[in-house]
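Z., the sequence and structure:
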Amino acid sequence: MANKSQKSSKSPVNIKKGDTVKVIAGKDKGAEGKVISVLREEQRVIVEGVNRIKRHTKVVNQGGRAGNTGGIITTEAPIHVSNVMLVEGDGVTRIGFRRDEVTKRRPDGSTYKAERSVRISRKTGKEI
């Protein structure tokens, strides 16, 4: 049985924090929301208002006023990145990459050419 550190190579997660995504599979199919955080190692994202779960918490009396009260807390659970697509305009799109040549400046004032990777929409070709 393979260790967690010995898993096979995975495809990269192209979704970033702050992107607006649409859920394309699962119980929340069709829902749109903003990405709160990206868990790259697990290939999962947490989307605002999607995949809500209820967690029951105990009353903790340690630390005086710092102790939390018990109850039911509703939070978002992570969903797999393959179940979401980036929203662009009025529809969804896949994400591609393009290398743009840029001119950079060194601290001494001289310039040099370098390449910068830019995310683009596969549907329109525009920069995201």
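The CA atoms of residues 56 and 72 lie 5 Å apart. Residues 12-93 form a domain with the SH3 type barrels. fold (CATH 2.30.30.30).

Let me know what you think.
H.
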